[in-house]
Amino acid sequence: MKNTKLALIGGLSAAIFLIFLVAQNVSAETYVIGSSIAITGPTSDVGSPYAKGIEDYCKFTNDANVLGKDRVECIVRDDAYQTANTKRNFEDYMDQDMVIYLNYSTGSTLGLKKDFEEEKIPVLPASFHAGNLDESNYIFLPIASYSEQAIGLVEYVVANHKEGTPKFALFLHPSAFGRGPLEDVKKALAAGLKAELVEVVEHGNDLDYTATITRLLSKGVSYVISQTVQPPVATLLKDANRLGKAASSFGEKGKLTFLGCHYAGGPDLVALAGSAADGTFWTTSYTMTIEQGAEAIPIHLAKAYGRDTDLGKSQNYMNGIMAAQIAIEAMKRVKAKGGKISKASLYDELNLMNGANAYSPGTTVGPVTFSKTDRAGVDTLQLYLATDGVFRSYGKPFTSEFYGKIK
Prior knowledge:
It contains 16 helices and 12 strands. It has 407 residues and is of the alpha/beta class. Helix 10 (230-242) links the parallel strand 7 and strand 8 (257-260). The protein starts with a helix and ends with a helix. The relative contact order is 0.13.
């Protein structure tokens, strides 16, 4: 009888333990975050570090138990900047029950806009094209748009130019990404921003910009505002310095002062242009690691996951990190409310990320704020100036006055 009781107790104990294990496994969920990025091909100089930023923050999320027992599976695939590849990746991720999507290019974001609407899935793109938000309910820009950045730079030129009406040129990538701010800049000028747009240069794979520089100067251009990626800007800066036509002070007569939007500057530009980058002005919504100091999140992550030291300084690596930060933060907030993480709950949570619920990721100069009427994240910008091979903050964070007027 005693042995029978012991066997019964042992059997019950084993059953209870098995139930406990099953319960543990049931309670732990894995959530898919999909990413389709130009790791190779055009703009891979941006896409490669961006992809690594996503990967490393997802690793950190799991290693640090940011979501408790739950895990994220971040699938990052190369699309070589081809929208057809992006669409295939996106459809495959949806088959894997993806709950939030981190897209990359302007072209594919525009091309898949209807897909995002049909699937009702929140999307955070690497593209800050203002047009992404038109006729869309599910796309959320992490930071201020290219249009807001470019107009903000024109405003800075107008405020600091010394004599007469400043003349400037736009140096653009020959794609939807590059052309994005053009019409909005024209609208701002028509609304009373006192500057003259003399020429729009859509660059190719030029190895020498001597003719372009000579032509712009002959037309009285003093400022060049770039909305493209770093390699062509580096070539332009090197040629201007070689010709002795790069301004040594802001707005210097007979020379060119260079300014750039997010993807046209930063530490990655210095790596390509060297000392020729000195004197270049640049704007973004990100806080550079040199400004963050010892607590810089990208530096810590790069070190923790065996990345090259320079990668931790890249604004494009930080850009990928921050997109993942927003996605994970939305998940945390859903869980904190006792909700179930899904496409719908994450979409709702992103729209509540404002006011007292604004999100400060520690990588930007202002908080991330979203709502159903405003899906552009960080509204503030910071101007940086390259000096001795380092982009350092120049003045205080600001917002564009005229962007608000035209929108």
